[in-house]
Each structure stands twice: as C-alpha cells, then as structure tokens.
C-alpha cells in the first residue's frame, strides 16, 4: 500500500517548470541547499544561457539573510526574545559571575574551566603576551595619524610571519585539521599567542601614536588589567588600574567576545576555509569588523553624537534619518528584533564608570536620541532598538580612550570568538570544505573582442573610470 502522507520531516517541493516533485529531508529545522540542484529544467524560450537551468536550481540569498553555513555549538541568539547564550550560559549570568578570560576558555573549549584548568589557561595566555622587539619598528613605520584598526589588522598578519611552524602552507595543509594531540597542541599554542598578544598589539598601536615608549606586558595583573597597564603605564612604581574601570572593561570584553556568525566571524571562517594560517584569518576578521555597520559602529555613534551636538538637535537629526539621509548608528541589528541583551548590561556599566570618571557631556544627547527614537514610528515599525554599540562608546570616551581606538576595543575581545569558530571548523566532522558561494550572473552574454579603432565609447558614470583631481 502506498503511503499517501509524506513523512513529516520532509519538505516536498514541486518544480512547476517540469512537474518534478522532490522530497527534501529537514534536519534541525533546515534543508540542504544542494538538494535543489536536482531540479533541472530545459532552457525556456528567452531564458539566458547563463542561468544554467540544466545544471540545477540555485539558492539566492544576498547578504546571508537565511543561509546556515555551519553547524555550531558555540553561541545561541534568539533575536525575537533578546536572548544571547555562550555555550548555553545566559550572557547576563556570565557578565555578573565570570571574567573575560574564563569566558574565553568556555567559548573555545566548550565548558567552564576548573580552578586548575583556569590557572594553566591564564598562565599560557598571559605568558604569550610579549612581542618580539622587532615589532617596535613595524609600528613605527605607520604614518603618525594611522587609524589604529589599520595597524591592528596589519599587525595580526605580521604576527603570523614569526611562526612558520603554524603555517599550513609550509607545514602541510592538514596541520590544523588532523585533530590528533600533536596537531591540537600546535593549534592551541596559536590560540594562546593570538589572545595573549591581541592586547599587546592594541596597546602598541595606541602608544606609537601617543609618542610613548612601548612597555613589556606586566606580571601579576588580570588580562584586562594587563591591557590597561600596557596602555597607560608611564613609569609609575606600583601601577594598578582603577578596579572599577578594570572590571567594567573586563565585562565589556566578555560581552564582545562572541556573537555567532556576524560579518567578521564569517570572514574568519571564509578565509580559514582555504586552510590559511590563523593569523591571516584573524587579520581578515579584523578588517571586516572595522566597518561602520559592524565593530566600527561604536566610533560612528560618538561621531554622530558630536555632530548632533545637543538634545535640542535630536528631532532634526531623526528627520534626516527617516529621509534616509543619515543612519542612526548604534541602532538596529540583523538578528535582534526587540532588544540587544548586551545593551542593557552596557547601560548599567556606563553608570558605574560615570560614577568614577564623571558623566560624559554627550550623555544627555544620547539619552534624548534614545528616548525619541524608541517612541518614533519609523523605528518601532522596523523593530530598531539600541545595540551594544550605542552606549559602549560613551564608556570608552569617559575612560579616556581616543575615539578611533573604540573599534580596537571591540576587536581585541572578539579574537576569542573568531578563534572559537575557527577551531570548531578546523575540527568539524567531515573536514573543512572551502567556502565558495554561487552567484547569479547577469552580465553580458558571450560577445567577441572588438578592435580598438572599431569600438563605440561607452559613456556615463559607473561605466567609465572617474576623473580625479590631482594636487601638489
Ligand atoms: N538607522 C536608520 N534606519 C535603519 C537602521 C539605522 N541604524 N538600521 C536599519 N534601518 C532601516 C533600514 O534602512 C531598512 O529600512 P527600509 O525597510 O525602509 O528599507 C530597515 O531598517 C531594515 O534594515 P536593514 O538594512 O534591512 O537591516 P540589516 O539587518 O541589513 O542591517 C545593521 C543591520 C546593523 C547593519 C543596520 O541596522 C545598521 O546599519 N545599523 C547601524 C550600524 C550599527 O549600529 N551597527 C552595529 C551592529 S551591532 C554590533 C555588531 O554586531 O557589530
């Protein structure tokens, strides 16, 4: 007897071009995009040959709006409920009870460390903070006004040049994918180095612009305390970072440590999928984070607040946003559609920091902007709420970090998340598949080369190179 009811865990798809029906298995509420490749059709009249209908149906997803590219055990976000969990632990619990370095262990290895595991981990990470003295020349080679993210991005790639033993191009492409103890040891050593040196590289990018001598990472301080020392130390005998500011920065680091497959983590995996060394992959992630839609938003928020100037100018600014002339930086998120749980914690930290540093003069404008936007139909309808970047910049400003250093304060802790995803992918079942998306080709069909004196000029903006004005 034929079972008329198809199984429940199947998606039944009918291709009306051919009448072909396929059952596609649903696993974990997802379907494999490759299952659609069996839906082939003869080219219809007028259909472009480049659509390649005979080769199977393609899935179009500009901007990865609904495409899952990996199975992951690291971070879970429920964007409608405003939930964020690292390895199952709610972010609110970790922010109050854990530290950035303990959470880093959790994100990378999957469980909270015991006291002895944590000691080994902390020792390894802090032990790997020291940079070769050659690096001083590297930082000094930048222009006096170089953006610190340009320096940090380059510095991660530069760092890789020290470790030929960690380069699959030199040691064999299975260096990080074997999963045996020897391979894991090489991998974990690079993890200690990258997390340990991220603060050192960031502090060097800061100090070179201030004209300060570089300092060796101290002993006896926490990860975040060591970072503040490396930034701030000017020869004091018993330098100790302010405990409230150290704690605040540590929680901010923890909140920024991972956020599943955002643009930069995806970039790290995309780059890492070619089996390049982890330093190059992290440099690529850092470059992606720099953009104002991602980690550069904390800097963009402050520039926006400065341009608004005072609370009275907020309504005019919001009108410009609604006309799409401007963007309200620090608002909106691809995944969160009610609230970003990190933003509430950041808001509380802001108050703690302001009690020490005094209030930032832009706070009133920020609060007016927040207040007006949250009740405005434009933002309500589009479910736009403050994200982690809306308040964090005000804290960094109050703590005295330069404005263009803010994305660095996002990148340093995010190295942890990038490495967690990279390690997971290297060790995933079935090995690493190179990430090679498809495209929908809409360019010219086949045409023949035209000799130069027979060509008709194409004119117009975008169709020809733009003229530039030369100075000097
Ligand atoms: N200001 C004004 N309008 C906005 C904003 C904003 N910040 N964000 C989204 N919109 C509008 C957008 O124009 C669109 O309107 P319409 O439907 O009329 O075309 C609608 O809301 C939907 O937005 P979208 O562009 O489809 O959303 P997306 O998921 O592609 O982009 C985003 C997400 C974060 C890039 C975007 O919200 C944005 O540009 N925000 C400002 C930059 C920012 O704060 N980034 C930090 C993100 S959180 C930290 C991190 O992960 O890096």
Describe the 3D structure.
- The chain contains 18 helices and five strands.
- The protein has two domains: 46 residues, no CATH class; 359 residues, Orthogonal Bundle (Citrate Synthase, domain 1), CATH 1.10.580.10.
- The longest helix is centred in the middle third of the chain and has 30 residues.
- It has a three-stranded antiparallel beta sheet. It has a two-stranded antiparallel sheet with strand order 1-2.
- Helix 7 packs antiparallel against helix 18.
- 46% of the residues lie in helices and 5% in strands.
- It has 472 residues and is mainly α.
- The model has no long low-confidence stretch (mean pLDDT 95).
- The structure holds carboxymethyl coenzyme *A.
- The site of carboxymethyl coenzyme *A has 20 residues, from helix 17.
Q: Note the overall shape.
A: globular
Task: Tell me the strand percentage band.
Answer: under 5%
Specify Rg, calculated over alpha carbons.
Answer: 25 Å
Order of helices and strands: EEEEEHHHHHHHHHHHHHHHHHH
CATH C-level of the largest domain = Mainly Alpha
CATH architecture term of the largest domain:
Orthogonal Bundle
Keywords, separated by commas or semicolons:
472 residues, mainly alpha, Citrate Synthase, domain 1, two-stranded antiparallel ribbon, 5 strands, binds carboxymethyl coenzyme *A, Citrate_synthase, acyltransferase activity, acyl groups converted into alkyl on transfer, tricarboxylic acid cycle, Citrate_synthase_bac-typ
